[in-house]
Amino acid sequence: MVELGYDSFVAADMPGLIEGASQGVGLGHEFLRHVERTRVLVHVLDMTRDDPLADRALINEELATFGHGLADKPQVLALNKIDDPDAAAHVELLEEQVEALGVPWLAISAAAAEGTMPLARRAFQVLQEQLEREAEEPSPPPLLQPEPRVRERVRAERGADGTAVVHGPTAEWLAMTLDTEDVEAREELLDRLKRLGVQRALTRLGVRMGERIRIGEVELTWE
Fold first, then answer.
1. Could you tell me which residues come within 8 angstroms of residue 7 by beta carbon, excluding any fewer than 6 positions away?
2. What is the residue range of 201's domain?
3. Is residue 148 a part of any domain in this protein?
4. Is 72 within a domain?
5. 137 to each of 9, 67, 69, 184, how far by Cα in Å?
6. How many structural domains does the chain have?
């Protein structure tokens, strides 16, 4: 959850967007399906790399190949690592090319928290503009025969160290993208995990409240 005074919006990290994601490399399809739920994409570019704009083009190609309107979502560019002198010089060198892309951009340092709040405010502004556009669009006709929802299978087992391990793409994605150190985010995560069926799976495994569990690479206390 990103808070901006009285305003707030939900942001999620999408580290699975790599080359070949549209073909299912890694958890590519799972991450791309989650991208479908977003309204705005903040594309973070590593300015210490040789050709960050080529990196951007590669990911945009993955979005276009996957389809479902992902390539049409508004973007904000975050030119990251400007605390590195070489990266800062790279930003100056590529500034005209970045401007020519026609998308909002800001230079930031995530590590030094430099420019991150202006980035959040710009992303929120673009989000508001997108919501206004959506409100002006005609509503689609109602679906008389909606497709049945397929419930994702979630399972739990004991790991080699005895810790309860939860398996399921959405559960693992939620655990990875929400900040478990933030009380509100952790409560939201636990609530969504329960709705996914994680609680039933853990109960069948004999897990008790207060026990440590692992979801993907994230460990937390089950409450």
1. 124
2. 155-222
3. no
4. yes
5. 22, 20, 15, 33
6. 2
Question: What is the model's pTM?
Answer: 0.59
Which residue's structure tokens are 């509503």?
139
Q: Is residue 9 domain-shared with residue 89, that is, in the same domain?
A: yes
- Residue 205: predicted pLDDT: 86
CA distance 62 to 187: 33
Strands laid side by side in the 41-46 sheet: 41-46, 75-80, 105-107
H or E stretch at 2: strand 2-4
Blockwise average pLDDT, block size 10, the chain, 223 residues: 83 61 46 74 90 88 78 91 91 91 93 92 91 80 56 79 85 73 73 82 86 83 80
Which of left, alpha, beta for 197 (phi over 0: left; psi -120 to 50: alpha)?
left
Based on the fold, state whether residues 26 and 130 are members of the same structural domain: yes
SS3 assignment, position 138:
coil
> Angle 28-35/169-177 helices, nearest 10 degrees?
70
Q: Which of 195, 203, 198 is nearest to 216 (CA)?
A: 198
The answer to whether position 142 is within a domain reads no
Report whether 75 contacts 103 (CB < 8 A): yes
Distances (CA, A) of 41 to 12, 14, 147, 218: 10, 10, 28, 24
Phi then psi for residue 159, to 5 deg, are -80, 180
Residue type, 38: T
Nearest-5° Cα angle at 60, 55 to 63: 135
